Amino acid sequence: MDIGRKIALLISVGLIATSCGSATATDDPDEPSLEGSTVEAVDIEIRTRGDILSTDPSNERAQMGTLRIPSDLDGSSPLVVLLHGAGGPTLSSLEDMAVAVANRGVPVLNASWVASIAHPQEGSADAVCAVAFAYQQAASWGADPDKIIVMGHSGGGHVGMIAALAPEAVPECPAASDAHVWAYIGLAGDPGAAALGGNAYGFWKDDPEILAVMDANRHIGGNPDLITRFVHGTADTTVKIERTVAFSQALIDAGYDSLHIPVDGGSHSDPAIPTTDAGIEVLRVLEELIELSRS
After folding, report:
1. Any idea which of 4-13, 25-34, 151-160, 202-211 has the lowest mean pLDDT?
2. Closest to 262 measured CA to CA, from 238, 293, 233, 287
3. What CATH number corresponds to the domain at position 273?
4. Range of the domain at 117
5. How far apart are CA 266 and CA 233, in angstroms?
6. Averaged pLDDT for residues 64-93
7. pTM, full prediction
């Protein structure tokens, strides 16, 4: 980590240390508002905390996140970890989706991660640590730690798949042993890109050590009970739909419960926007998984 980033992190830790211990408080005047969302509100109370740490503040992999917790949870709810795309380095790109997820009655952690061309493993470490943090905190948020669902858009779908299949492959996250993922929803993600060209988007180089972490194809076989769903627009010109078709099929061939859901005419950003056809499909898939988790 460069010194500027470390200093910024330490400042952030100092500013929010007092709020991290009570992520479910409802009387913080600085909590982000749900007003202005493009998602229609439903009759559910949602407690919101902004700028929590998604990992232990004592380790330098800590990243920021926003947490939303519906009221009256009984400990059986799944918990969703949202991971934004590599082109959206802030949490704002998935905030509307976070509201829509919380409106389905499940807690959601919208977690940040850093896409680094020089050190792409750091993005996977951020994702793994966010999942580990969610696992550690799930019970206190009214959720079942064994029912964590990762939803990742674009590059977030890539690092989210690494976290879901092989968190132990990411030594940069010291909490990797606590990263347990029950289900994964890819929002135009690209977990299998390394098998189709190596240097996809500059997220990694043709470096054996980097590819050992970043090529999700190499991790197929890990977490064999993982449920995966891929929602992808047919008009996506950023990540070709053929890539997620191929990766989903590779999972099926290896015995995983995997489905690929194409959305006619959907663009690359559409699955991350809850009011588009693709976004509506993402939420339908999530609702099915929520029902399955409680059966």
Report:
1. 4-13
2. 233
3. 3.40.50.1820
4. 3-293
5. 4
6. 86
7. 0.82
Contacts of 197 (CB under 8 A, 6+ apart): none
> What would the mean pLDDT of 253-277 be, rounded to a whole number?
97
SS3 (DSSP) at 282 = helix
Q: What is the DSSP letter of 41?
A: P
Where are the extended beta strands (E) located within the chain?
Answer: 46-53, 64-70, 77-83, 108-111, 143-153, 183-187, 227-233, 257-263
CA dist 176 and 94 (Å) reads: 24
Mark 101-137 as b/e (b = at least 16 C-beta within 10 Å): bbbbbbbbbbbbbbbeeeebbbbbbbbbbbbbbbbeb
The count of structural domains within the chain is 1
Confidence of residue 29 (pLDDT cuts 50, 70, 90): very low
State the DSSP string of 171-192.
TT-TTGGG---SEEEEES--TT
Is 189 within 8 Å of 258 (Cβ atoms)? Answer: no
State whether the Cα torsion 135-26-62-230 is positive or negative: positive
Amino acid at position 233, single letter: G
What one-letter code names the amino acid at 183?
A: A
- Judged by DSSP in three states, 295 sits in coil
